[in-house]
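Kindly inspect this one:
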Amino acid sequence: MVAILVAVLTASAVPASATPPGWTREASPDAPGALVTIFEGDSCTSAPSCVAVGFTGSAAPYSPVAEHWNGKTWTLHTVPGTPGVSAVLVQVSCQGTRFCMAVGTGGGLDLAERWDGTAWTKVPTPTVAGATTDALTGIQCSGPDWCMAVGAVETPTYRSVTELWNGTSWSIVPVTPAPGGVANVLTTVSCLGRSFCTAVGFIRSGAGNTYRDLIMEWNGASWTTRTAPNPSAAFDEFLGVSCVSPTWCVAVGEDTVASHPQTLAMVGIGATWTVTPSPDISTTFQNNFTSVSCLSRVNCVGVAWGGGIPADGGAIQTLSEQWNGTSWSIVPSPIGSGGSQFNSVSCVAGDACTAVGNITGATTSDTLAMTLPETTPGYRMVASDGGVFAFGGAGFSGSMGGHPLNQTIVAMADTRDAKGY
């Protein structure tokens, strides 16, 4: 203990590199023999560990798929499906490496599967009375004994549904439909512990079939609808949300202005939500955020896709943007030829953001996984004995403790792959 204290006290403080090398594609396997394998959601915890979920198959019925990233390799998992019907895992939330809960839909009913560090197991979910279809599309867990999942049921119009996991079973949590719509759909959720969640989605009105955004807040006992601006008079919806405190969240999705779908991003400070302009890559067709992950009020990464018509090159393209506390800016995510899109992103402080989705060819659709070194401000201290200590958002890639230095360290930078310095 004395040696460690001396090393820290005689260390030199070195700012962490502030220039990330950009997105890197990581090889991810497809299910053997399948023409289609698509990642829909992901969750990353302690670096480096991520789980991505989705679906696979060559034709309906499709089967659920899951893969694990250990920082170097994606590994395909075996996931139980629903015999005779299509089953899709839409989102996943992990706590460490021995617990994940993934949700989706199978055979028109909601679906939940649990990872225990060794295998995936289907978990029974309750049935909503009178529902003809049921799907869970968002989930956030605070531990193996608490998860909140959101989605929608058709009864016969669509309405929001929320379900709570207590470590043993799922139960339905009542949610009052937001006023003014014939359909209410919650798409995803972000929770901080068990007494605060923000869920987002959309409301469809009967007049003109217009869509407007939906925000609901959980206080540990019940859900309350929050008011948010609607930039478009025709179409607004949220597909992603991330909160860093009960008084600060970011929600992302799309809105349509003059028949032109655009990315939509808002910052929620307390009960007040404000639009934050975000750039697009297509000036003529589709742009929409699908997911966002925030580490602080000055560091969020949102992923999306855009394009899709000849004026944009014919194929949809991945889109990534970063929030610095003031504005959004595009982070290039080059894939190459063919269509590609991001469906989900998850960031870990001091390590990386991992975005997943799919690449579409003429007859196939393959998994896509990319990593972006995380750039939360931080610093490292290098001790006289060679020890390296990382603080804040500075990544840690190993140490040389026990190898005394003969000079003071005055500068330090990450390697291009952000796995060394």
